[in-house]
Design brief:
The chain is of the alpha/beta class and 276 residues long. It has helices spanning 2-14, 22-28, 33-43, 49-75, 88-96, 114-122, 136-146, 160-169, 201-209, 241-258; strands at residues 84-86, 101-105, 126-130, 151-155, 173-177, 189-192, 194-197, 212-221, 224-229, 233-234. Strands 1, 2, 3, 4, 5, 8, 9 and 10 form an eight-stranded mixed β-sheet that branches.
């Protein structure tokens, strides 16, 4: 059932009709919408209910529009040449350093196009850590969209050996979405809107491999896509896992505050937190 519903969504997206039905999806989504509103209450306690509802509605509209655009980029890769770049010097310096490079990002904007853009523009292969989709048919579909000979997908549950191999031996840029809730009880508590556990995987990997970590985000502004890179950072002797992780959380939070309706609020990020 889920697969056939997905196929309907895909057909509508291919026809550029899905984003026009955002209001229908918003009002009929009885499962995810309460999570979206709860997350917004936690992240923006000072915003009015009207403001947060507007962000929620635009989140649905943007998400469906991003899905349509992902299909377009797959069919028309030349569209990658039209993307604006901000902070390109940061990734160029990282790539020219000769050190391993980890691209850290979040479920923000259209993160799906970032690997394709980086491979296309900088001619560097990537390895992307992804969570497998439970439905095998839908998972197979997304693998076709996400992967090619220059973009290797690594199952999030795979051993760290494959990750290190891709980063060090194969010299791939490693892409990691780091903003989801972690079940690691030993994860550091940092401020990500509120004090919360945050995934330290990138921090630990950067410390072990001496990699340069560079935050990068793909988002839409005035109908045009932008890829923005932030200043990079390498793990120093004066750093701690907590401080390095806090830096990542702050960078992501800053982008979300700039464009709150382009964040993927559907994840139950603060599951055990009750919003007032």
């Amino acid at each position: 059932m889920m697969y056939y519903l997905f196929r309907i969504f895909y057909a509508l997206a291919s026809l550029k009709m899905l984003s026009r039905l955002w209001w229908l999806v918003y009002y009929l989504d009885f499962f995810r919408k309460p999570i979206v509103l709860k997350n917004l209450n936690i992240a923006f306690p000072d915003k009015s209910k009207k403001e947060k509802t507007k962000i929620a509605k635009n989140t649905y509209k943007n998400f469906l529009s991003f899905f349509e655009d992902t299909i377009d980029f797959k069919k028309n890769p030349q569209m990658l040449d039209d993307i604006e770049i901000i902070g390109e010097e940061y990734i160029l310096n990282a790539l020219n350093s000769g050190k391993p490079v980890i691209l850290v990002t979040a479920h923000f904007g259209n993160w799906e196009i970032s690997p394709k853009f980086i491979v296309h523009r900088y001619k560097k292969p990537m390895a992307v850590i992804m969570r497998e989709i439970e439905n095998p048919k839908i998972n197979k579909f997304f693998k076709k969209i996400r992967a090619n000979e220059d973009i290797k997908l690594i199952n999030k549950k795979r051993s760290s050996r494959e990750i290190v191999k891709s980063l060090l031996r194969e010299k791939r840029i490693l892409g990691v979405l780091i903003d989801q809730r972690t079940v690691n009880k030993d994860a550091p508590t940092v401020k990500f809107f509120i004090p919360t556990k945050f995934n330290p995987a990138v921090s630990k990997l950067a410390k072990a491999t001496k990699a340069i970590v560079i935050p990068g985000f793909s988002y839409k502004k005035d109908g045009k896509y932008t890829v923005e890179f932030k200043p990079s950072k390498a793990f120093k002797e004066t750093d701690t896992i907590e401080s390095f992780t806090q830096w990542q959380a702050e960078t992501i939070e800053e982008m979300i505050k700039r464009y709150p309706d382009q964040y993927y609020w559907f994840h139950d990020r603060w599951k055990n937190k009750v919003a007032k």
